[in-house]
Amino acid sequence: MSRRTLIAGNWKMNTRADSAVALAREVAKAVGEEPAVDVALCPPAVYLSAVADAVAGTPVGVGAQNLYAAQDGAYTGEVNAAMLKDIGCHYVILGHSERRAILGETDAMISEKLQAALAGNLVPIVCVGETLEDREAGNTEKVVESQLRGSLAGLDEVRAAGIVIAYEPVWAIGTGKTASKEQAEEVHAFIRKLLGEMFTPEVADQIRIQYGGSVKPNNAKELLSQPNIDGALVGGASLKAEDFAGIIHPA
Ligand code: PEP
């Protein structure tokens, strides 16, 4: 089964209206008309429309960094899947470790968001990953398994095939410390095996598993060449078109 690589840029809470549009245009230019990989930009919610307009007609997709799992109603400050779809989003990042740690998102909340994303025809990018403490205690697989089983609870096989998982070891996010290709591949292979048990091996074979954690142009190629690494979720290096382009087209 060949899975198409997905490189997604998570801009987090960065950029302003002008710089977001300029960055999106630069990325679209660098990507070209027929890239060999799928590319997505995930700007802050307030700039999603502007970025979607800036990349309209190009192969660059747009994703949100979060959603609220409810239909329209009295949820002050929140944005739902239908609204994201309405303004041109294709993807939505769910359960990023920053939201888990800072905003107290639980696996149960993420599984509700996942159902809402799928019902709204968005492709969810579900983030999982261990802390340094978990890893040093030998609990990486246990933590990743519990996050995956919790976040994907209630998901059926048919829909499972279309989701994206991002394995993001928390100790590698924004720290400049990347998992080695062996460390990353080991966890990706474990995730694929687990997905095979949770769904079927055929479904697991179709699910794209991205790696995230200090991916840069100089380490992208070796990470992306691993058999179970199907793309990258990129934070810091997605804020410079040149660096992001260097990950999309690694030398
Ligand atoms: C992220 O936040 O998803 C991420 C991987 O960040 P960075 O690339 O900066 O480590």
From TrEMBL:
Similarity comment: family membership: Belongs to the triosephosphate isomerase family.
Keywords noted in UniProt: Cytoplasm, Gluconeogenesis, Glycolysis, Isomerase
Species whose genome carries this gene: Rubripirellula amarantea
NCBIfam families: tim
Family matches, as HAMAP family: TIM_B
Uppermost EC category: isomerase
Catalytic reaction annotation: D-glyceraldehyde 3-phosphate = dihydroxyacetone phosphate
Protein's recorded name: Triosephosphate isomerase
Binding site for substrate: 10-12, 174, 214, 235-236
A biological-process GO annotation: gluconeogenesis
Subcellular location: Cytoplasm
